[in-house]
Structure formats: C-alpha cells, structure tokens
Hints:
Layout: H1 3-26, H2 31-51, H3 60-84
Helix pairs in contact: 1-2, 1-3, 2-3
Amino acid sequence: MNDIKKHIIAGFGVALIVALPVWLECNNLFCGLWACIAGVIAGVVKEWCDNNTEFNEWSWADLGWTCVGSLAAALLIILMHYAKG
C-alpha cells in the first residue's frame, strides 16, 4: 500500500474513533468538526515525530493527505446526521 493511502486511512480512522462515539451519543452536527480537528492533530503529531527522527523529515503532503482522510470522515458523519434526521 502506498504512503498516500496510508495517510488517508489513518486520518479517516482517527477522526471516526474520536467523533463517531460522540455523534452516536448526542447526534450533534459539530461532531464533524471534531473529526477534522482530531485528524489534523494526529497528522501534525505524526509529522512532528517524523521531523524529530533521524533520516526523516516533515512532509506537508503527508499532513495534507491525513487531513483529507479526516475530512472524508467528517463528511460521512455530517451525511449520517442528515440521513438520521
């Protein structure tokens, strides 16, 4: 699996793990926002760790793909919110 797919899946997974339980409990539309924030934080932490590891560096592209995954999870939560009514 290439690096882009790994970052998208990681962002999606982190966002769902953080936001989905909250959404299931309270059915709040703002859980989509929490999903995005969680994915961005996870991406920044991962890139910060990469930057502080020997023979590795910060990658804005990797951070961007992680954010794309978290945005996809946020959109899924928003769609579920409106589908549930």
